Amino acid sequence: MSSTPVPRLTLSRDGPEFSRLVAGTWRLGEWQWPLARRIAWIEACLELGITTFDHADIYGGYTVEALFGEALKARPDLRERIELVSKCGIRLVHPNRPEHRIKSYDTSRAHLEASVHASLKALGTERLDLLLIHRPDPLMDADEIASAFESLQRAGKVRHFGVSNFTPSQFALLDSRYRLVTNQIECSLLHLAPMLDGTLDQAQQLGRAPMIWSPLAGGRLLRGEDDSARQVQTTLTSLAAKYAVSASTLAHAWLLRHPARPLPIVGSSRLEGYQEAAAAFSVELERSDWYALWSASTGAPVP
């Protein structure tokens, strides 16, 4: 397994510089780690060169940012060594938000500003390096969002802005009002849609590196729980042996081979999960093998 640090990448022409792998915090609350282990996890990521941490206000029922914030409070020196990403715009029905009567989206200026304030307080920091709109809002007012972004940036609370799960047209609409630096999307060998619907075409056209959630399809890719997963798993296992790496490493290498320069998000309670993803940067995946995995996923040769 390669010991070379994870490389860094600037998301866009005037965007932030992030580690090419991102540590995901979605399940941090489920791991039920004591404070010392949370700190050790952050340090272990940093040792691998993973400096970017992905949050959302709703993670863990609005608790994960505070768990991470406790680690930063105990070790304030860590803040200047990392980049913090968070997402907002979903109103989740949860006991921690009793005023939310129905799950809905809210991209109003008031909600965005209140969400950022709450995230900064929970994380114990003065700024976010990147804020993303978590999901497309059918009632999205692009001008109102742009106004909120401008206000938050002027106040020094957020450095850069982007979106998550947006279609190309939705991205283009908001980007026409305020320059976005990334679209965080789902993509994996079991979810090829962004390679076919114009999402990654747009990312490459605009030079905005996309962030990728669920790069292992939530683990389905490795567990082989259904026919399509087992089909891909067979080819993945065979090629992993050829490259002398794990199946997880090869699945990440397959994503990294794409010219849109994706940044996979790794959310694992195991250090090995990050090590295996980091090892993907040492794999020089041949074009024919990339297409062998594509064909395994689609169930047919390319036309």
Automatic annotation (TrEMBL):
Classification via CDD domains: AKR_BsYcsN_EcYdhF-like
Any Pfam family the entry gives: Aldo_ket_red
Residue ranges of domain NADP-dependent oxidoreductase in the record: 20-292
UniProt keyword annotations, A-Z: Oxidoreductase
Group of enzyme by EC: oxidoreductase
InterPro entries given in the database record: AKR, AKR_Detox_Biosynth, NAD(P)_OxRdtase_dom_sf, NADP_OxRdtase_dom
EC number(s) stated in the UniProt entry for this protein: 1.-.-.-
Residue ranges of the TM segments: none
GO MF term list: oxidoreductase activity
PANTHER family (alphabetical): NADH-SPECIFIC METHYLGLYOXAL REDUCTASE-RELATED (PTHR43364), OXIDOREDUCTASE YDHF (PTHR43364:SF1)
Designated name of the protein: Aldo/keto reductase family oxidoreductase
Species this chain originates from: Chitinimonas lacunae
Higher taxonomy: Bacteria, Pseudomonadati, Pseudomonadota, Betaproteobacteria, Neisseriales
